[in-house]
Amino acid sequence: MLKEKALPRTTQWERALSQFIYDGRYTALPKQYRKMVYEDFMKKNSFERMREELRIKQDVGRKMREMMQEYLDSGKITAGTEYRQFEELAKHDPRFISAIQMDREALLSEFVMSVKRAKDDRTNRLMPCN
Prior knowledge:
Order of helices and strands: HHHHHHH
Number of helices: 7
Radius of gyration: 24 Å
Largest sheet: none
Number of domains: 1
Structural class: mainly alpha
Number of strands: 0
Distance between the termini: 73 Å
């Protein structure tokens, strides 16, 4: 019953009560256990939701990095690419659309920095030290 209601994980007992007070499954529980069952469920469910949200965010990040690597390999982006340029290139890509804008910007910034570092490392290895 509580899963069916899909309450936000921060919903307090008093607010949630109105969602299921007339449900027969709720009234089947003895009064002294109702609040305890709700709180236990919310703790467990909250942890599961947070874990699932983290997994989704990591998956979206992985897909975005793969997309950026593809764009780098094809020459569409470089170490000097800014977010607005990248946004224009990728605005129809489902991997780009699935990410939150703040995450997109952070992922691109991180990716561009790693490309710059790799480029600098290659340059430093090619140039002999005096």
